[in-house]
Amino acid sequence: MPYLSETSRERLYTCDRRIITICEQAIKFIDFTVVCGHRTDDEQDQLYAQGRTAPGRIITHKRGGESIHNTDPSRALDFAPYPIDWSNIVRFGEVAGIMKYIAWNNGINLQWGGDWPNFKDYPHIQIAAV
Fold first, then answer.
1. 28: which residues sit within 8 A by CB, 6+ positions away?
2. Do residues 99 and 23 make contact, with C-beta atoms less than 8 angstroms apart?
3. In 27-87, where does DSSP find H-type helix?
4. pLDDT tens for each residue of 52-71
5. Domain boundaries, the chain
6. Cβ(5)–Cβ(33) under 8 Å?
7. For the chain, first and last CA: distance in Å?
8. Alpha-carbon distance 70 to 73, whole Å?
9. What global pTM score does this model have?
10. 15-38: pLDDT as tens digits
């Protein structure tokens, strides 16, 4: 049975209790790792620089303080399904689908970055603003 590693749990526990609930239930059905929960403003700024003033591709449109990863606790989480293959969008969708179903069953309004129309962020889930 899949389980969250100590590192994944440390990252997960920087998140809103609702995300923790979703992930602790989802791991019983599908294997994934937690890549990131809370980010500092400086960490967010470094990611924002990618593809702009630093090497790499653009992975965020939010500067430090603008992302809900920057809330404390974080209302966003990035995950990766095992085995990790960043190009396997189907696998990201499988994990997100399970997470969305669990969220729905728990009355949690969850958004997946893969559903966004203009900027696909497949590793990203977030608690929707009410």
1. 1, 2
2. yes
3. 41-49
4. 999 999 999 999 999 999 99
5. 6-38+73-127
6. yes
7. 35
8. 8
9. 0.94
10. 999 999 999 999 999 999 999 999
